[in-house]
Amino acid sequence: MKHRLGRSLALAVLLPALVNAQAPPPRPFKVVRLDPALDAIISTDAKIEILGEHFGLTEGPVWIQDPAGGYLLFSDCAANVIYKWMAGKPLSVYLEKSGYTGTDTLNVGQQTVSGRLAILLIGSNGLALDPQGRLIITQMADRTVTRLEKDGTRTLLADRYEGKRLSGPNDVVVKSDGGVLYRQRERIARRRDGTVARAAVQRSLPGEGRLDHAAR
Question: Taking the CB of the first residue and of the last residue of the chain, which one, N or C, has fewer CB atoms within 10 A?
């Protein structure tokens, strides 16, 4: 009994020390101004804060303005979701299966390394808003560019160019005329279904249902 009591007391003393020893060091983030013009965009007293941690790989942040004050959306390419952050509220999932809507993950997506951990990227990547406030999503593993409608359905904007499958749409921006420009990388699909369109910046023209090459 005495031995058990002694071990319990030793653990009670050691555990706080171990917890404190493993606590992460403070991270002194700060804004480094290389040009005074930045002050016109970011307040001089702005401070960097952590909105969330322990994601697989985050991409595509886009701010959604609304009467409640607005919220931030961003992709987690490994988790295959789009997260929603709103001030004063817990982080939540905004959209499931944001980049891959299938079930077989064996031959899709892109592998990469985060630290020492090998991860599979199957989620959405770039996000943007069109002039009507609808969310444009590059779905890497589905190899498509889609638009999220107000009722939650998705409209396909692009999946091929000149009959060839897209390999993996990545970054995306939307022009004021509604044109959707996105970049696709040539080596992102783990399984190739026939020929694949070359890496390029392409443009989806609103209402015309066709793609143009904007740059290579």
Answer: N
